[in-house]
Amino acid sequence: MASPPAPGQAAAALRPPRSNGGWVLARRIGAGLFFALVLVLIVRQARNIDWHEVLASLQEIPRTALLAAAALAAGSQLLYSTFDLLGRHMTGHRLGTRVVMRVTFISYAFNLNLGSLVGGVAFRYRLYSKLGLDNVTITRVLGFSMLTNWLGYLWLAGALFCFWPMALPPDWRIDSGGLRILGAALLAAGIAYLVLCTLARGRTWQLRGQALETPSLRMALLQLAMSATNWAVIGGVIWCLLQQQLPYTEVLAVLLVAAVAGVITHVPGGLGVLEAVFLALLGHRLPESTLLGALLAYRALYYLLPLAIAAIAYVATELRSRQR
């Protein structure tokens, strides 16, 4: 027999539905249609790919390119691991630097491969709560880290699309003018955040029951510098694996497009989405086998290898907490 609902649940059930239900439904339908479009694109392209050529292209990547890409990947992972240190500064909790970076690294590795809800959210709450942080503090740290990540994205993607638009396939209806408009909008959003931090420093905002404090302009600029550098380094990983056959700015721009496509489709790790976007935007510039070989190496260096290390670190952390 099912237990009766708690008083709060019963009260919530009696409340009238929210007025934004139509907007939520429209967002879900839009995301579903986008996911279906990407899935069709992936299946169509997968049927026409010679995977023997892809493996041969993967094996032909020079060792120097692999080493350079591995070094950049390690640098990006290390840099992202410092994002939660900004949240520590904003919340004032007293966990050590190495502890915070270890939690961030583990969460990021699982986030890349299993999705944000499992990696970025669930792992942070579990690990931080075991270390003594309350849910409110964890939420603020997580939110500030996510804000840092996407602030750099806004500025970097905005600048690339606005001032260095990529060469789109000739049969696409969108031209460089459309990219410039999109880039200007992204830059405007990034500028608006800096203006907010300048004019409303220290102000507390209530968002879904959480109190969020506006950082100082100095902190916002640090967020921007760290995040933009991280995105730029990730682009450098793929650029090295492509053996610099395309301009770096174009490779980075395609990566930024693929990142948003992966978020919209909610595919863990952007599996297939990343490849579909690169093939769609750069397939007219390089052979498909070359692109896919480089992307397979990228997944191995930036996704799978950190995941293996993070899994070991997570097990060690759990064992250490049980011994305590």
Write the layout of secondary structure elements.
Blueprint: H1 7-14, H2 21-47, H3 51-59, H4 63-80, H5 83-91, H6 97-114, H7 117-130, H8 135-163, H9 176-199, E1 204-207, E2 210-213, H10 217-241, H11 248-265, H12 273-282, H13 288-323
Antiparallel strand pairs: 1-2
Helix pairs in contact: 2-12, 3-13, 4-10, 4-13, 5-6, 5-8, 6-7, 6-13, 7-8, 8-9, 8-10, 8-11, 10-11, 11-12, 12-13
Essential attributes:
mainly alpha, 324 residues, disordered N terminus, two-stranded antiparallel ribbon, single chain
Overview of the structural elements:
- This protein is an all-alpha fold.
- It has one domain (49-323).
- 76% of the residues lie in helices and 2% in strands.
- It has 13 helices and two strands; from the N terminus they run αααααααααββαααα.
- The chain has helices at residues 7-14, 21-47, 51-59, 63-80, 83-91, 97-114, 117-130, 135-163, 176-199, 217-241, 248-265, 273-282, 288-323, and strands at residues 204-207, 210-213.
- A two-stranded antiparallel sheet has the order 1-2.
- α11 packs across α12 (273-282) and α12 (273-282) runs antiparallel to α13.
- The two termini are 39 Å apart.
Mean pLDDT equals 83
Percent strand equals: under 5%
Query: What is the element string, with H for helices and E for strands?
Result: HHHHHHHHHEEHHHH
The side-by-side strand order for the widest beta sheet comes to: 1-2
- Gyration radius (Cα, Å) is 22 Å
Largest sheet: 2 strands, antiparallel
Proportion in helices: over 70%
Separation of termini?
Answer: 39 Å
- Low-pLDDT stretches are 1-19
How many individual β-strands?
2
